TrEMBL record:
Species in which this protein is naturally found: Saccharopolyspora kobensis
Gene3D superfamilies per UniProt: Vaccinia Virus protein VP39
Name listed for the protein in its UniProt record: Spermine/spermidine synthase
Gene Ontology BP, a term: polyamine biosynthetic process
PANTHER family: BLR2883 PROTEIN (PTHR43317:SF3), THERMOSPERMINE SYNTHASE ACAULIS5 (PTHR43317)
Keywords on record: Polyamine biosynthesis
Amino acid sequence: MMIVKPMREPVSGLVNVAAMAELVARGESERGELALLRRDDVLELRVNGVFVMDTAHTATERELATATLRAVGAARLRVLIGGLGLGFTLREVLADPRVEEAHVVEIEPDLLTWHRDGLVPHTVAAVRDERVRWHLGDVAEVLAAQPPDHFDVVLLDVDNGPDFLVYDANSAIYRGEFLARSAEKLTSGGTLAIWSADTSPALRAALHEVFGNCEELAIPVRLGRHETTYHLFLAVR
Ligand SMILES: C[S@@+](CC[C@H](N)C(=O)[O-])C[C@H]1O[C@@H](n2cnc3c(N)ncnc32)[C@H](O)[C@@H]1O
């Protein structure tokens, strides 16, 4: 399918961005190439040459945390975050004093190393926060290994959404089996939230099927001269 929607797109446009940018760090894994680039003061994360996100436009990554935590009434929170990225969702989670543990699942070992080495100064304090529990691996596998009724909040931002995958294997994350597994790991009243660059009737239906409810938040975003809308899908156990 051809992708027509600009997603987490760099302001200066895609053409020659990599050429204009300074390479801060580069890694390789079985999934391909990971690169951290700098343009002026903006850091940018790319996977196999594809733009994933940058530090200039992080409102919806932060909103993934704030909107979801706002909706959860518990006095103490244990949160799981799927996908560290540049750490903005994590930083926002940790800003909530109710959070006692923030479990972060990241599949790319080099990205963890870069954060620990302080290459992403915007979120360095969050990465070093003692409430963080690190899991290196696939969020589907890590979540499956957790005890039931364990998390008050599960936040997933591992792709640009169900229709714009960073890794093909992630398609399972948006389907019934994994969503049901996530529901099992949530406490009663706990919330699963998923970031997406676009609306997704299929994801909404799958969440309804598993949880019996789904709220979709459409958040307007300005990316340089572009205006677009990103989406958060929330479902309560
Ligand atoms: C869009 S970024 C996350 C952005 C993050 N919300 C932030 O605020 O910076 C996606 C992250 O998910 C990671 N990722 C992709 N697939 C994954 C998987 N199956 N399990 C764990 N992490 C994954 C990528 O390596 C990347 O770091």
